[in-house]
Write a structure and sequence with these properties.
Blueprint: H1 2-41, E1 116-118, E2 124-126, H2 141-153, H3 158-169, H4 175-187, H5 190-201, E3 205-215, E4 218-226, E5 231-236, H6 241-247, E6 256-259, E7 272-275, H7 277-290, H8 298-318, H9 326-347, H10 353-367, H11 369-372, H12 386-402, H13 408-426, H14 431-439
Parallel strand pairs: 3-6, 6-7
Antiparallel strand pairs: 1-2, 3-4, 4-5
Length: 449
């Protein structure tokens, strides 16, 4: 009897211990899930890839957690900055006070009369219409440039563009006319697109990025390839290799690609890579935000080391030195590596998606060290992909102002003309002047350096 009772109690104890282990497992999984949800709630534009526009009125005020460090300069214009203001002219129409006026806007109409004559043999000859006057009544190049400027350059919808032309100039324009003029302008830019594609592909350093864009009620992707002098935008239904091949830049590119850590970029092994430090700093900030207050965090040290190395490069460039101080650089590299190694150790055995994400970040910082720190060895390489993000941000702004585009063809026309305008601006040419040249049938082309 006693032996049977002991055996029964042992079985019950074993069952209780097993149940306890199950409960502990469930508790660990619950804690991991709670941590993931808390991390998601804490995401903002400073510690994730969320754009500032997504935060609305809840956007956090700049504070001690900002990734931007103090420059030590006073607010406003700096010493030596020329500044601009509205000045007086030498010979005003009225004395003592000057007010800049806009004269009433009026449209002038030029009539071209096409003379037709018949000779004695019965053959009739008629004059050809000049360029831009193919129809009985049509819009001149400057009006067409204004329409495209408002629609593509300033992101008005087709209907609001037509309304603006009617109210400002008294010109009756339909949304169909806006679409037709845009299509005609985009069709003249094939040569420019090929020129930009070739020059970016042949450059020593280029930035690449992609962003979602609503087209035909579905998610499409706008891809951007850029340098300091060229911008190329392309819309495609896919985000990865298929779209990159269609764009035609990366397959022929042998310089240094600046991009985030998205895996498809690594397919192109003939190119060097500079991973975006700004992205890494946001990821590290997200880890730091979850650390207990007052405790040392490996992510904070890694972020400080990355920021310090960028400062070392900026200092070397400002002093016209060809390289960073080796001892100072070695110190920061050691801090960077030790932080990543500690991060790997601390996150290796922790359960949950969030811990795996932090573990992957620490491993990437270490395994891709050369690609994160390439900018410290080659000053022509920027440490971040901010330039590309600025170029591609206009796509998101367009979507925010006027919504999605209804057709893939319209989205392609938008990207084509935005590529042209962005490149023109990088060469000091205004949007409107570039559009006048385009609507006159002589698109501006950058002069190769």
């Amino acid at each position: 009897m006693v032996a049977a009772l002991v055996a029964s109690l042992r079985r019950e104890l074993a069952d209780a211990l097993a149940a306890l282990e199950d409960t502990r497992g469930e508790l660990e999984r619950a804690r991991a899930r709670i941590a993931e949800l808390e991390a998601r709630l804490k995401q903002n534009s400073r510690n994730s890839s969320k754009p500032p526009s997504s935060e609305g009125l809840a956007k956090p005020a700049p504070g001690p957690r900002s990734l931007r460090k103090k420059s030590g300069r006073k607010p406003g214009g700096q010493d030596g900055h020329p500044g601009t203001t509205l000045g007086q002219v030498a010979r005003p129409d009225r004395q003592r006070r000057q007010v800049e006026h806009l004269a009433p806007l009026a449209v002038t109409v030029t009539e071209h009369q096409l003379i037709e004559r018949e000779c004695a043999c019965g053959h009739r000859t008629k004059a050809a219409a000049p360029g831009g006057a193919e129809a009985a009544a049509c819009y001149g190049p400057r009006i067409a440039a204004v329409i495209i400027y408002l629609y593509i350059g300033q992101f008005l919808s087709k209907n609001r563009t037509a309304q603006a032309l009617a109210e400002l100039f008294g010109i009756p324009v339909s949304s169909g006319t806006v679409a037709a003029l845009t299509a005609r302008a985009a069709s003249k830019l094939d040569g420019f697109l090929e020129h930009a594609r070739e020059h970016i592909a042949a450059s020593a350093v280029a930035g690449f990025d992609e962003t979602g864009f609503r087209v035909e009620g579905k998610l499409a992707w706008v891809h951007c390839a850029r340098t300091s002098t060229y911008t190329l935008l392309m819309v495609h239904p896919k985000r990865g290799k298929q779209a990159m091949e269609a764009m035609g830049v990366l397959p022929a590119f042998a310089g240094v690609t600046v991009h985030d850590a998205w895996a498809p970029y690594d397919i192109y092994t003939q190119a060097g890579h500079q991973l975006c430090c700004a992205h890494a700093l946001r990821e590290l900030q997200a880890v730091t935000d979850l650390a207990p207050a007052g405790e040392w965090c490996w992510a904070a040290q890694a972020a400080e080391a990355l920021t310090a190395m960028q400062a070392l490069v900026s200092e070397a460039i400002s002093q016209s030195r060809g390289a960073v101080d080796p001892a100072a650089l070695a110190e920061q590299v050691t801090r960077y590596r030790s932080a990543a190694l500690i991060g790997i150790g601390q996150t290796r055995d922790r359960p949950g998606t969030l811990a795996r994400k932090h573990h992957a970040l620490a491993r990437r910082l270490l395994s891709r060290q050369d690609d994160y720190l390439r900018f410290t060895q080659d000053f022509a390489v920027p440490p971040d992909n901010n330039g590309t993000e600025r170029d591609i941000r206009m796509v998101k702004l367009r979507q925010k102002v006027s919504g999605c585009l209804r057709t893939l063809t319209g989205a392609r026309q938008f990207c084509t003309i935005r590529s042209y305008l962005s490149t023109a601006a990088k060469h000091g040419l205004s949007f409107f002047d570039a559009l006048i040249m385009l609507t006159e049938g002589q698109p501006w082309m950058p002069i190769a350096a």
